[in-house]
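Good morning C.,

I know you're traveling, so I'll keep this short. The sequence:
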Amino acid sequence: MTDMLERSLKKAFIDQKTEGSLYDPQIIINDTKKKQYILNVVQNELDTCEEFFFSVAFLTQSGLAALKTQLADLHLRGIKGKILTSIYLAFNQPAVFEDLMKIPNVEVRISQKEGFHSKGYLFKQSGYHSFIIGSSNLTMSALKVNYEWNVRLTSYDHGQMIQEIQLHMENEWLEAQELTDEWIYNYKKTYQPITYYKEMTTIQDPELVDEPTPYIVPNTMQKTALLNLKELRDTGAKKGLVISATGTGKTYLSAFDVLQAKPKRVLFIVHREQILNKAKSDFQKILGGNNEDYGILSGNKKEIEATYLFATIQTISKDLVLQQFAKDHFDYILIDEVHKAGAPSYHRVMNYFQPDFLLGMTATPERTDGFNIFELFDYNIAYEIRLQEALEEDMLSPFHYFGVTDYVKDGELISESTDLKYLIEEERVTYLLEKLDYYGCSGNIPKGLVFCSRKEEAKTLSALFQQKGHPSSYLTGEHSLEERERQVERLEDGEIEYIFTVDVFNEGIDIPKINQVVMLRNTQSSIIFVQQLGRGLRKDPSKEFVTVIDFIGNYKNNYMIPMALSGDVSRDKNNLRKDTFDTNFISGVSSINFEKIAKQQIFSSINQASMDSMNELRKSFQLLYNRLGRVPYLKDFEEQHTIDPLLVANKKNSYYDFLVNIKQNEGTISEVENQFLMIASRELLPGKRKQELVLLEQLMRDSAQSISLTRIKELFTKHGILADEETVHSVLNTLDLSFYTGSAAALYKQQAFIERVETGVSLSPSFKEAMENNYFTHLMNDILETGLLKSKEYSSTEPLTRYQKYKRKDVLRLLNWEKQMVDQNVGGYTSSKDEFVIFVTLKKGENFSGAQMAYEDELIDYSTMKWFTKSPRTMASPEVQKLKEAEKWHIRVFAKKSDNEGTEFYYLGEVKPVQDSIIELEKPLQNGEKKKVVEMFLKFLVPIEVNLYRYLEAGQE
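The tokens, ready to paste straight into the viewer:
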């Protein structure tokens, strides 16, 4: 370890070429493009620390919230920390001090020092200290968005700098005042919030700022959408669809489009009467004009002569009302929340009127009821902005999502089958209230919406919350619209703290003051999850952020949580695992945090879920079919970022077989033609090497011609990909199938894509014959084009790409092995020419049956792995001798967390064995016998990227 720290200091301050380690000094700057933030470094240090001490002048509720799950997990481990802060410039609000008092394992003191402006984070780790000093306070802006400079350094306990820092902090701590409830009470009485002058500009959307500007112009999103709508109409289109997250200003957008389209008469249709006046008011702000130009058509008003008429669907859809208008009375019709347009009432209206243009607006076009919104609007998507983009554009309120562990009864975590009596017993209510209090909300006065799974649960929990001093009500589908409106008004006015609900408020309700969304139900779909999350995301002056508290039980659908939060619907298990562990994908000053046990529940759900069931694949197919208005192909799935095309292509022998199964094939192909598709789907579609795709595409383009080896090299060079002789030879071995052995060779039946001829290579006769079928050619080109899209994720100039995943077979092929080796024969490692490849499963599990011996391979740190050879092996074994002559070999390590991750391994990079660590020892077999094995430490030439290291290392718990 001493050697590692010395190396790191030398690398940082003397010679950058020196091999580094996890102790490397590091400058930390927020980088939104790379999704690397100061916040994550602080979180990572907290996760592994034994003690911590923060000295920060400024804190916000939001900044503190981003650390609360780590602090809760530390509390369970008995780990405590200290925070020293101040009241300098009156920046710290009383609410953040109240929040600090709720964290049981953090002691807080207030510095009395004049001008206290420090920003330092000290962590006691196992065997060393790390500290971050720089410009970042404990605020979300400083931790994620602002341009800040911070330096992370490490030291042993006896280092002078750490001794000085600790002594100074301890002295400051002793001189500071303890944070108490009494201190907060007195601070609140005298606290005067600082006010900053905020220049109002004309580009702000009044829906997204506290005060409307005198002159309203479109925001960035609206400008793009308006241009698209104009271009759409210029092509002669009569319909357009805008897909926009709740709270992003759809009403203003529609008013701006009316302004540019200049229709004579306009009809705006909504599904709730309460929205009408707000929509009318917004339009008048944009369009101007007299009051009599604007009218309401509802159960209470019939102002049908107005130029701009705002109507409820319930009223306008009545036959007697429709007959009062000529079919072409309105030039421009807008339908809000148009995903409801599957209802007969909407059909009546849309079939009756004949406007010049029809605009539909929705946040959720993908319907769970199968209705095709896209078809209704001729597949004309004028604009689309989803949750992530809206957060990036600062259109929505920031949120802090907390995935917390639900109540445990008699050692059992709540699940789908839990008896209702346990869901509503007093102990669970106490537990829920403790969690709600701990994770809190902006301003600490909750205005919460709680989603339950059962009506009786909502009703009883509301009563129990009421009994415990938290005024609440409940709403279900049985309550009238008037009652819903009354309870919403009570929530916004502060009469109640919570509304418990079932199947109400998933969509179409606007409660801007909501500052806490609570989920007490199993996630049934990612669409509904986003709808419920979105209930709190509209900006409002009363809140700085929204707290989302998701109580995660032992539910089979937990895998949908990372899917919904990340927007990644590829159903790739690996992506979902990483999105649960590494939540950097969320934009702006929002954060996503999972308690450790809740995270484990999600991992368990991902492992058990059948992501590629025919039912799920059929649903994904239908959603994309609806969007495109035609049969989607593999390239469409990739381009639209929906389900991973590998899942649908390899569910059956080929995508053609999948289409036949769901009766959507647009032609027929022979068994031989389908065999080609099957091989290409398995070997070429993943895009792990671009060369095969480029060559086969070129040969298909001019199927009558052969291509010389020289021309192949020129072709590869032109595409900027490896064109050396060994790679070209390997590519040909792949396409003529001579690389494949064993079961793969038997499956592929020597049905080669190419053959070698005197002039080089050409398509094989059977492939040329297959190309006479246009449908086959279309399907084959679809595989190649999709593979080329996927190949963008891989290096063009290296055979392997660090941190990508590979099967053993892929590794051997891409490293130009002459022949495939059966996985079982490769086992943990193999070698050829100058390549030595090592495959490691880090978390083997208690019942691991892959080996007779318990191999304790493990990552020691970012640069070091402890590794064992197979048994029986000695210092004289051939592979050990090779590793002792490491300079002659490229030694590459591939790792996966566990067998739950399938047959693919992350490529972690090249290593060199630490020569004096190579030792021979005996280890017991499962039957009690002992056999010799060789142990050594492997040093990575480039340290493992921190988030992947933590993800893999966490799998060993």
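Safe travels,
E.
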